């Protein structure tokens, strides 16, 4: 989702020498393949958008993949980019790396100030290591690395699987299928009370392009919308967008995750960047994309 959005943004901005690889063409966990790729292509600006990504269920049932794949991907890419003369590298962390009970809204300084949310600790530890590795390469080698911490993302290219997706795409799919089947209800995981922030992926891509041009510092930057909604509010908004008129049933036996996750984006906005796509319009556009791409969705 993010890699495609960054590629769309850069192409729209007129950059024509984009070097893109799908996983089937280059497995970033394989060190020799990554070294060979960087030595051959020698990219100047590197956006590292690949990672093992998933929701609560995927994180808690496949912890080894979440920690091992992410550590390998980022170590291989950061090191090979530096050794092959890249001018700059952008690393994507995540709001999941902050402590479970970090003061809200979460400031970048909260990193490592408390215990992590246990359900995604494997992913979080790997991402924290990636952020630290980027800072270490800057400190020791002068390699211009920057790290962004995006909030929950959504948009075209999202993963609509019911097993390893995030809450927003999972609810779009559930409401859509319930509408088609005339089902009386849709199940929503958890109590509906946790609050989450959502950013359209095209806004994140815009921030990535802006910061690759304008920012070079070891301090990580949060990227978010600036306001949050409860999962219940999100579910109702999605049902309305999709046109599902049945009941939303909250399954309290499923985990909630942290009670609230809203990022403090004042560092980023002080640099002159603001997101533009509201949740309502972003959801409408995402549902339109979902409806038009039924045959090619990631399920
Ligand atoms: N989605 C969010 O809400 C969110 C929030 C905060 C931060 N982020 C960060 O943003 C970045 C992109 O996330 P996303 O939402 O775009 O996830 P995504 O849609 O799942 O994209 C990740 C991409 O990485 C690829 N990949 C995974 N393992 C790979 C490997 N070993 N070699 C090469 N490619 C590999 C995946 O390929 P396959 O599909 O073939 O596996 C997929 O194309 C990640 O760093 C993530 O941590 C995402």
Describe the structure.
By secondary structure, the protein is of the alpha/beta class. It is 43% helix and 14% strand. The chain is built from ten helices and eleven strands. The strands form four sheets. The protein has a four-stranded parallel β-sheet, sandwiched between helices. Strands 9-6-11 form a three-stranded mixed β-sheet. Strand 2 (88-92), helix 5 and strand 3 (144-150) form a beta-alpha-beta unit. The chain starts with a helix and ends in a 7-residue tail after the last helix. The model has no long low-confidence stretch (mean pLDDT 95).
Low-confidence stretches: none
Q: How many extended strands?
A: 11
Structural class: alpha/beta
Largest sheet: 4 strands, parallel
Distance between the termini: 13 Å
If you compute it from the alpha carbons, what radius of gyration comes out, rounded to the nearest whole angstrom? 19 Å
Bound molecules: NADP nicotinamide-adenine-dinucleotide phosphate
